[in-house]
Design brief:
Layout (H helix, E strand, L loop, with lengths): L4 H20 L3 H5 L10 H14 L24 H13 L6 H18 L1 H12 L1 H13 L3 H4 L9 H19 L6 H21 L5 H20 L8 H12 L1 H4 L7 H26 L5 H20 L1 H16 L14 E2 L2 E2 L2 H7 L1 H19 L3 H19 L4 H19 L4 H27 L7 H13 L31 E3 L5 H6 L14 H8 L4 H10 L2 E4 L19 H7 L8 E7 L5 E7 L1 H5 L1 H7 L9
Parallel strand pairs: 3-4
Antiparallel strand pairs: 1-2, 5-6
Helix pairs in contact: 1-5, 1-7, 3-4, 3-5, 4-5, 5-9, 6-7, 6-9, 6-20, 7-20, 7-21, 9-10, 9-19, 10-12, 11-12, 11-14, 11-19, 12-14, 14-15, 15-16, 17-18, 18-19, 19-20, 24-25, 24-26
Length: 639
C-alpha cells in the first residue's frame, strides 16, 4: 500500500506527540506536585550536580569531584555531552545566569525531548529499509517501549542513557544508508559513513563505555566477509563504510576521555577496526588460495584466542575489570541488586520470562521466539542493510539478556525489525494489512503503552522530609573543604595513582548508595557511598553492624560526622512486588545471609488460603540501621 509523503509525515507527527505525552503527562504530579522540580531516581542528581559545576566553570566541566564520595573519590565516570547539552540550554534560557530551579527544570525536560526525538531516526531507518509503513510501525513501538527505554526518558529522569539511545539510532540510520545499494557514488557512501562516525563519536562523548558499539559493528563486518564465502560472492566485500565510521568515532575519544574505564574504550574501537579489516583480509586470502571455506572460522578462532592471551598479559587490570563486569551482568555478583545490570532471563535467581516481558513488553517474548529465524535469515542475507539490522541486533539482544540496560540498544533493532515484519505480513492484500495492523496495535502496542504509563507514573523523587534533611545538611553543617565556594570550583581529572589532597576539615556523610547523589547535589556534602556503588561495601558494613562499638570505630576510620537513617533502610512485609526497603540489599552487600536477620513463614488463612509473613529476628533490631531509625540511636530495653 503506497502512501504520500504529507500523510506519513502527519502520522509520524502524531507518533512524536504521543511519545512526548507518554513521557511527561503521567509523571507531572511526581515532578511538580510539591511546587518545586523534583528529579526522579538517583542518577539524575549526579547530573544536576555536574551541570551546575559545568555552568559555574563554563566551558570547562570538572573532571574530578572531591564531594562525590569520601574518604576517597574517583574521576567523573561519564562523558560530558549530556551535561553540556543541558548546561547550554539552561545558560540560553537564563540569559547566562540560570537559577537552580531553571537548571533543574531543563534537566527534567531534556530526557523527554530526547526520548521523543528517538522516534525520528527509527522512522527514517525503517522507511529506508522497507518503506514508510515500516518506519511508522517501528516509530510507534519505540515511542511506547517500556523498561529502561521509557524510564531513562521520563520527565524528571535526567540521565545520559537517553541520549545514548538517540545517538545509536542515528548511527544505525546513517550506517545503513552508507551500506545501501541505492547509494549512487562512493562519495555519497563516504559522507553517510562519516555521518555514522560522527554519531559514534558523540556516543563516546556521552558515555565512553559505549565503545562496545564499535566492537559489535566491527565484529559484524568481519563476520560478513567470512559469510560471503558461503553465500557464493565472487570476492568478499570490504565494508569501507564501517572502517570510515569507526575511524571517525575513534578520533573523538581524546575529547571524551576514558573516565573510570581507562584505555578500554580505545581498545574496544580499535578491536572493532581490527575485526572488520582482519575478517575481510582473511576471507580474501582464503578465496585467492583456494582453501576450503572452513579455514576462515578456524583461523579466526585461533586469532581470537591469541589476541585474548596477549591482551591478558598486556593489561591484566583491564581483564579483571571485564571479568567483574561480566559476572555482575550474568549472575549479579557485587551489583546483583542494581536493576539496570540484572539479566533478563532470571527472576530471583530462577529462569523466568517475567523480566524480559517487563523490559520490552510482548515484543520481548516475540524476539526470543523469532531469534533462531532471525539468525538463519542473517546467514542468508545479501543486503548489507538488512544484515546490519539482523546481525548487530542479535548481538545487542544477547547483551540485553545479560544486562537489562543494554535493552535500549536492542530496542532500536527490535523496533525496525517489527516494522519490517509488519510490511512483509501485510503485503498481500488490503484485508491482510488491516488484520496485521490491528493485531500489532492490540497485541503489541497497546499493552506496551500501558506498561510504560505505569512506569512513568512511579514516585521516585525526594519526600519533604528528605528535602528538609538535605537543606539542614547544606545550611547547618560546615563545608567539608572549609569553604562553601569550593563546591562549585573547578577540579581537573586526577592522573593515574594521584590522590586528592583533602584538608583536615574534610569529613563524610554515612548514607546508603541509593541516596548518595541526593546528598551530594542537594545537601552539598560528601557521601560515603554514591550511585556508582563506590563505597557501598563500607556503608553496608556500618549499617549491618550489630556491635555499636565496632560501628563507631568504622565511622571514626571513615571520618564520618553525620549519618542518614530513614524508613527505606528497613524491610517491609512481603507483597506481590517483593520486599520493600533496602535492608536485605545492605546485608547482602556485607556478605551476610538475610535469613539471619529475618525469616519468612507461610501463615494459614481461612478457606485453605495462606499468606507470607515476615518475622523480624533479634539481630535485625541490633543492626545500626534499625538502632538509628527505629530507636533514634537511643538505648532500648526489649519488652
Amino acid at each position: 500500500m503506497t502512501m504520500r509523503a504529507p500523510l506519513y509525515w502527519a502520522l509520524f507527527a502524531l507518533v512524536l506527540a504521543s511519545a512526548f505525552a507518554l513521557r511527561s503527562i503521567p509523571a507531572w504530579d511526581e515532578v511538580y506536585g510539591d511546587g518545586v522540580v523534583d528529579l526522579q531516581g538517583g542518577d539524575p542528581y549526579f547530573h544536576l550536580r555536574s551541570i551546575e559545576a559545568l555552568i559555574a566553570n563554563f566551558p570547562l566541566r570538572p573532571g574530578f569531584d572531591p564531594y562525590a564520595s569520601y574518604p576517597a573519590a574517583r574521576n567523573v565516570p561519564t562523558g560530558p555531552l549530556f551535561d553540556y547539552l543541558a548546561a547550554t540550554v539552561a545558560l540560553g534560557l537564563g540569559a547566562g545566569d540560570p537559577s537552580r530551579e531553571l537548571i533543574a527544570g531543563v534537566a527534567a525536560w531534556l530526557p523527554v525531548i530526547l526520548g521523543a526525538l528517538t522516534t525520528l531516526p527509527v522512522f527514517l531507518l525503517g522507511r529506508s529499509l522497507a518503506g514508510p509503513w515500516a518506519g511508522l510501525a517501528a516509530a510507534a513501538w519505540i515511542a511506547v517501549c517500556t523498561g529502561h527505554t521509557i524510564t531513562y526518558s521520563r520527565l524528571g529522569f535526567a540521565d545520559h542513557h537517553v541520549l545514548e539511545a538517540l545517538l545509536y539510532a542515528v548511527f544505525l540510520w546513517a550506517l545503513a544508508n552508507s551500506l545501501g545499494r541505492e547509494s549512487p557514488t562512493a562519495a555519497v557512501e563516504a559522507r553517510w559513513a562519516a555521518g555514522a562516525g560522527l554519531a559514534l563519536g558523540l556516543i563516546l562523548l556521552n558515555r565512553p563505555a559505549a565503545a562496545f558499539v564499535g566492537t559489535a559493528v566491527g565484529a559484524w563486518s568481519g563476520l560478513e566477509a567470512g559469510l560471503d564465502l558461503w553465500r557464493g560472492r565472487r570476492s568478499p566485500r570490504l565494508d569501507k563504510s564501517v572502517v570510515i565510521a569507526l575511524a571517525v568515532g575513534l578520533a573523538f575519544l581524546p575529547l571524551a576521555g576514558g573516565g573510570a574505564w581507562g584505555p578500554l574504550p580505545g581498545l574496544a574501537i580499535s578491536g572493532g577496526l581490527a575485526a572488520s579489516l582482519g575478517g575481510w583480509g582473511l576471507a580474501v586470502l582464503v578465496r585467492r588460495r583456494g582453501w576450503p571455506a572452513l579455514a576462515w572460522p578456524l583461523t579466526v578462532a585461533i586469532a581470537v584466542a591469541l589476541s585474548a592471551v596477549a591482551f591478558t598479559l598486556a593489561s591484566p587490570r583491564s581483564v579483571r575489570r571485564l571479568e567483574r563486569g561480566f559476572l555482575e551482568g550474568l549472575v549479579g555478583e557485587g551489583t546483583r541488586l542494581v536493576s539496570e545490570v540484572q539479566p533478563l532471563f532470571l527472576d530471583g535467581g530462577r529462569l523466568s520470562p517475567k523480566p524480559l516481558l517487563l523490559e520490552l513488553g510482548p515484543a520481548g517474548l516475540v524476539a526470543v521466539l523469532a531469534a533462531p529465524f532471525a539468525f538463519g535469515a542473517w546467514l542468508r542475507m545479501r543486503d548489507r542493510r538488512g544484515s546490519l539490522l539482523l546481525g548487530c541486533g542479535l548481538l545487542m539482544f544477547g547483551g540485553a539478556l545479560l544486562q537489562a540496560r543494554m535493552a535500549i540498544y536492542a530496542a532500536i533493532h527490535i523496533a525496525v525489525l517489527l516494522g519490517w515484519a509488519m510490511v512483509e505480513l501485510s503485503s498481500q492484500s488490503r484485508w491482510r494489512s488491516l488484520a496485521a495492523g490491528g493485531a500489532y496495535a492490540l497485541l503489541i502496542l497497546a499493552p506496551t503503552a500501558w506498561m510504560s504509563g505505569q512506569l512513568v507514573d512511579r514516585e521516585q523523587g525526594m519526600s519533604p522530609d528528605w528535602r528538609a534533611a538535605m537543606d539542614w545538611l547544606r545550611t547547618q553543617t560546615p563545608d567539608p573543604l572549609g569553604d562553601p565556594a569550593a563546591f562549585l570550583a573547578y577540579y581537573p581529572a586526577l592522573r593515574e595513582g594521584e590522590q586528592f589532597p583533602y584538608p583536615p576539615s574534610a569529613y563524610g556523610v554515612m548514607v546508603w548508595w541509593d541516596w548518595g547523589y541526593r546528598t551530594l547535589a542537594y545537601g552539598r556534602r560528601a557521601p560515603v557511598s554514591n550511585g556508582t556503588q563506590f563505597g557501598a561495601e563500607r556503608a553496608a558494613a556500618f549499617y549491618a553492624e550489630t556491635d555499636p562499638s565496632q560501628a563507631l570505630a568504622l565511622a571514626d576510620e571513615l571520618d564520618v560526622r553525620y549519618i542518614v537513617a530513614n524508613g527505606r533502610l528497613s524491610v517491609g512485609q512481603p507483597s506481590t512486588g517483593g520486599f520493600g526497603g533496602k535492608f536485605h540489599s545492605i546485608v547482602e552487600w556485607n556478605d551476610q545471609d538475610p535469613a539471619s536477620f529475618t525469616a519468612i513463614y507461610d501463615k494459614p488463612l481461612e478457606g485453605g488460603q495462606s499468606q507470607l509473613v515476615l518475622v523480624y529476628l533479634p539481630r535485625y533490631f541490633q543492626t545500626m540501621a534499625m538502632r538509628l531509625y527505629l530507636y533514634d540511636g537511643r538505648a532500648h530495653e526489649p519488652e
